[in-house]
């Protein structure tokens, strides 16, 4: 296998071939693969960003990169303005905030809306099955599980019969178009993966990647990623013990806070003399405050750097 990969790399580097499909190829850190599945029932094609490899050792940074990798792949595959959704996993709200900042800085990202009545760019299980976005963003391990499920749910799991495989390795320094399959990939998936590779070569994947990275970097992607990896909690003075204000009846709900930031957000409100409690609503983590202080609390959280808004009715 190692010898075959060396031969593959040589053929790619000297231009004999422009793309290749293989198994068990080791990408460097910073490169991960964008799979393509066919959603059940509706038969919509959807890119899973990402499915193997590691975009970054830092979870949120990796998911932000995954979004860019998915956009690059979708564009090279013929979708001029792909819609992007972020799956509701740990870190999703931080990813949403980072992508919106990137968008505000001038990099175009077509964030889509959930099919659920509460909308928003954070996707739920319904959206995953329906293929609401062209590009579904999540961490690689979760994406890998999705590839297995979407590809083998009709066969019992040991034979992947549907979809296009785990996709091309994408990264800023990645110059070779190499797509990944697994040992469980059946003949239909292998055939589709070869077609996927051919479409990406025709779509000039390498040039698309170069252009998108240039545009993203111009929109301060490196600075945004650097801010994500800093160990700087929004609530300062962590040595200081924050005492909760007098307890109140809390019936107002605030959503949009990532679960990893939930307790920090509660303490940020306590510091403003607003009594708050954390909880779990129908769409994810929520902060509960009194109805009378709802707007004040939302404003205080936004001022502290949290993404926050009134929770929708379920």
From TrEMBL:
The lineage of its organism: Bacteria, Bacillati, Bacillota, Clostridia, Peptostreptococcales. One of its GO terms (molecular function) is acyltransferase activity, transferring groups other than amino-acyl groups. It comes from Natronincola peptidivorans. Gene3D superfamilies: Isopropylmalate Dehydrogenase. GO terms for biological process: fatty acid biosynthetic process. This is Glycine reductase.
């Amino acid at each position: 296998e190692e010898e075959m990969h060396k031969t593959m790399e040589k053929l790619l580097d000297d231009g004999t071939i422009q793309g290749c499909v293989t198994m068990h190829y080791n990408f460097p850190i910073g490169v991960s693969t964008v799979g393509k599945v066919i959603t059940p029932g509706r038969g919509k094609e959807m890119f899973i960003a990402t499915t193997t490899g590691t975009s970054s050792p830092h979870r949120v940074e990796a998911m932000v990169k995954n979004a860019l990798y998915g956009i690059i792949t979708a564009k090279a595959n013929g979708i001029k303005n792909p819609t992007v959704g972020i799956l509701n996993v740990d870190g999703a709200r931080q990813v949403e905030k980072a992508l919106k900042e990137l968008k505000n800085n001038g990099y175009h990202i077509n964030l889509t809306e959930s099919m659920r009545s509460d909308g928003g760019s954070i996707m739920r299980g319904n959206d995953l099955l329906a293929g609401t976005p062209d590009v579904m963003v999540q961490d690689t391990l979760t994406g890998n599980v999705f590839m297995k499920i979407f590809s083998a749910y009709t066969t019992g799991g040991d034979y992947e019969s549907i979809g296009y495989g785990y996709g091309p390795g994408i990264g800023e320094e990645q110059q070779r178009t190499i797509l990944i399959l697994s040992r469980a990939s059946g003949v239909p998936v292998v055939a589709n993966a070869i077609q996927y590779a051919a479409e990406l070569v025709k779509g000039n994947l390498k040039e698309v990647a170069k252009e998108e990275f240039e545009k993203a970097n111009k929109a301060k992607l490196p600075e945004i990623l650097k801010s994500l990896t800093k160990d700087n909690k929004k609530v300062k003075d962590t040595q200081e013990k924050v005492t909760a204000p007098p307890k109140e009846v809390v019936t107002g709900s605030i959503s949009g806070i990532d679960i990893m930031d939930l307790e920090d957000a509660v303490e940020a409100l306590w510091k403003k003399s607003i009594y708050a409690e954390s909880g779990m609503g129908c769409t994810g983590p929520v902060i509960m405050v009194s109805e009378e202080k709802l707007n004040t609390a939302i404003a205080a959280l936004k001022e502290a750097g949290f993404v926050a808004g009134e929770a929708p009715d379920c």
